[in-house]
Write a structure and sequence with these properties.
The structure holds two protein chains of two kinds.
Chain A: H1 2-13, H2 24-58, H3 61-65, E1 80-81, E2 89-90, E3 98-103, E4 109-113, E5 119-122, E6 143-145, E7 151-156, E8 165-170, E9 176-179, E10 189-195, E11 202-208, E12 211-218, E13 224-231, E14 234-239, E15 245-249, E16 254-257, E17 263-267, E18 278-282, E19 288-296, E20 298-303, E21 308-313, E22 322-329, E23 335-341, E24 347-353, E25 363-371, H4 372-375, E26 379-380, H5 409-434
Parallel strand pairs in A: 1-25, 2-5
Antiparallel strand pairs in A: 3-4, 3-26, 4-5, 6-7, 7-8, 8-9, 10-11, 11-12, 12-13, 14-15, 15-16, 16-17, 18-19, 19-20, 19-22, 20-21, 22-23, 23-24, 24-25
Helix pairs in contact in A: 2-5
Chain B: H1 3-26, H2 29-45, H3 47-50, H4 54-67, H5 69-72, H6 98-103, H7 107-118, H8 123-130, H9 134-151, H10 156-159
Helix pairs in contact in B: 1-2, 1-4, 1-7, 2-4, 7-9, 8-9
The chains are: A alpha+beta, B mainly alpha.
Protein name (chain A): WD40 repeat domain-containing protein
Transmembrane segments (chain A): 37-58, 408-430
InterPro entries (chain A): 6-blade_b-propeller_TolB-like
């Protein structure tokens, strides 16, 4: 081995001196500065990544969903209303004025805010969705948005006596009020509620088989209410701006309930052409009632003063037939209807029309479309629909952009950059500690 | 003495010795020059920390860079077709010198031999310089010598028959 050692030294000693560049020092200094810059950049990348992630995680999800910034001054009804799927329930109920309300497929109360078209699932007190719960047999069926979009009514939790209550939420302030307009009978369940055209009165109906209770409630600082026990198969009820209730019987005919509790016939089945109609919505002046109708080729309105059934056939080339559910009135002449054509059962269309055909009548379809799920329990803030008098440039409904998907590509990019920065920093640290 | 002048003085004083080691490590003048300069740039970069003992740092840098993958990638490797085939000793025109035989070892084997027989480091010191175990040094050293004997049987006297 000594020979190998001496031979290697002989080989080494024979090596000519190697040239050394003059700029080695400058190159080393430059490399040192690059390393320092790299470390600073790595630290900055990590700080930005952590701060950005914290901001996103802690941020209000509602802000992300309205990131498009698309808002309509004063609000509008969305041109398309669909079931939003699973949403996170919101405990902060001050979501602002709403344009639509319905019960979702998961049986949760949903409102669509008017200015941005964003759906919100509200965590309403006493709302029950699970009928399988042995301690709770009720499932909320009633959810009613006022025509001005400011208030939402639903059946709240029973009070300590087991008496049903009605909750009314001010969507602007988030304040909730609880009322007890129903009779002191345990177990009463509201079947349906609807507001008067001026958003002052609330009509309700509930079953207490074999009887039916209908009533009215004027929520507010000085609430007023009335309940009336009826017999027979009562279909629907509506209330006008004066608090007058009108209900329809399945056997046909309408009856009116005055504030005194007197119940008087309004229209017989014979006067209605032998056809069974349901009560829809009063016109603002209380003179007409837009009617619910089963499958038919027209929409119908009952003129109270004229004691006359008005008919507006679907124009040729539109619907062959359809189920009509009135949503309200734009004014004393125009009504907003939800029409579901029998040949297209998956969606319903919003239609603006007049009660009858005359020289100035209107019939406009495709104002909006509503998925069949939300359509079953839909109530709309019809006051948000602009008049057709030419004074507004706004469309009848508004095509809000879909909620944007959260763009996480930049987060991924930052994460990768941060990971690279960490690795580089570790490598730099390792080389500094080991001297390599 | 400023950093710059200290560095220049170090290069002038120890450059030839570093060049000898680099040549034995690489077996090529150009690669040796490249290896020395890369190690000196690293030394300049970290001069503030190593100026009290720069040579140990530069040598260690050369050892590691010589066997590191990104440095090997830049080297022009010897074709492997006859890598382990002994050259017939009867042909004097291809008779291998020690230099040529070293060149046919792997960078890691060559580095171990340079540290053990040129730098006169013990197995433990060699292991510490390369960051590997003493057993690995012993194993690589034995394999390197065996390969030298296989490549050039006429060098058997140099490398020892029992190694």
């Amino acid at each position: 081995m000594n020979d190998l050692r001496s031979q290697m030294h002989r080989v080494g000693d024979a090596v000519d001196p190697l040239p050394v560049d003059d700029d080695l020092w400058q190159r080393g200094v430059a490399a040192r500065r690059r390393g320092q810059v790299l470390v600073v950049a790595a630290v900055l990348a990590i700080v930005v990544s952590v701060a950005g992630t914290a901001t996103l995680v802690g941020g209000d999800d509602r802000e992300a969903r309205t990131a498009s910034g698309e808002v309509v001054e004063g609000g509008a009804i969305p041109r398309s209303i669909v079931d939003p799927g699973d949403l996170d329930p919101e405990g902060d109920l001050a979501v602002g004025r709403a344009s639509a309300a319905f019960i979702s497929q998961s049986s949760e109360p949903v409102v669509i805010t008017a200015v941005d078209g964003v759906p919100h699932e509200l965590d309403l007190a006493g709302w029950v969705t699970n009928s399988q719960d042995p301690d709770e047999v009720r499932v909320n069926q009633s959810l009613a948005l006022s025509p001005d979009g400011a208030r939402l009514a639903w059946q709240g939790a029973d009070d300590e006596d087991g008496r049903a209550t009605v909750g009314v939420l001010d969507l602007v302030t988030g304040d909730t009020s609880t009322y007890r307009p129903l009779p002191p009978i345990a177990g009463l369940r509201l079947r349906e509620m609807s507001w008067s055209s001026d958003s002052s009165w609330l009509a309700w109906i509930c079953d207490d088989s074999p009887e039916v209770w209908v009533g009215r409630l004027r929520p507010g600082p000085e609430p007023d209410s009335q309940a009336q026990q009826l017999f027979g198969n009562i279909q629907d009820v509506a209330v006008d701006a004066n608090g007058t209730l009108v209900f329809s019987r399945a056997s046909g005919g309408f009856e009116r309930i005055y504030g005194t509790g007197d119940v008087v016939p309004l229209a017989s089945k014979r006067e209605l052409g032998g056809v069974g109609f349901g009560i829809g919505r009063f016109s603002p002046d209380g003179r007409q009632i837009a009617l619910r109708s089963s499958l038919s080729p027209a929409s119908y309105t009952y003129d109270i003063d004229a004691e006359e059934l008005l008919e507006h056939p679907f124009p040729a080339g539109t619907f062959e037939d359809g189920f009509v559910v009135p949503q309200g009135w734009l004014d004393d002449r125009l009504q907003l209807l939800l029409v579901q054509e029998s040949s297209n059962p998956d969606v319903a269309e919003l239609v603006v029309t007049t009660p009858a055909v005359d020289a100035t009548s209107t019939w406009r379809r495709s104002v909006g479309v509503v998925e069949v799920g939300p359509a079953a329990t839909l109530s709309l803030a019809v006051d948000l629909v602009p008049d057709l008098d030419g004074t507004s440039s706004q469309e009848l409904t508004y095509d809000f952009p879909p909620p944007p998907e959260r763009d996480i590509s930049w987060i991924i990019g930052l994460g990768v950059a941060a990971a690279i920065a960490v690795l580089l920093a570790l490598r730099w640290l390792w080389r500094r500690l080991t001297g390599m | 003495m400023t950093d710059r002048s200290g560095f220049d003085a170090f290069v002038r004083a120890r450059g030839p010795a570093l060049a000898r080691t680099a040549y034995l490590l690489t077996g090529d003048h150009h690669l040796a020059e490249d290896l020395v300069q890369a190690a000196l740039v690293q030394a300049a970069k970290h001069w503030e920390r190593i100026e009290t003992s720069p040579e140990a740092y530069v040598r260690r840098t050369m050892y590691h860079q010589n066997i590191s993958w990104w440095r090997r990638r830049k080297l022009s490797e010897t074709p492997l077709e006859s890598y382990d085939a002994p050259v017939p000793a009867a042909d004097p025109t291809v008779r291998l010198t020690l230099e040529q035989a070293l060149r046919r070892l792997t960078p890691r084997q060559r580095t171990v031999l340079v540290l053990r027989y040129f730098e006169d480091l013990t197995e433990v010191q060699t292991a510490a310089e390369l960051g590997i175990s003493s057993g690995a040094v012993k194993s690589m050293s034995r394999d390197a010598l065996r390969r030298l004997r296989a490549l050039a049987p006429e060098l058997a006297d140099l490398v020892g028959a029992d190694a």
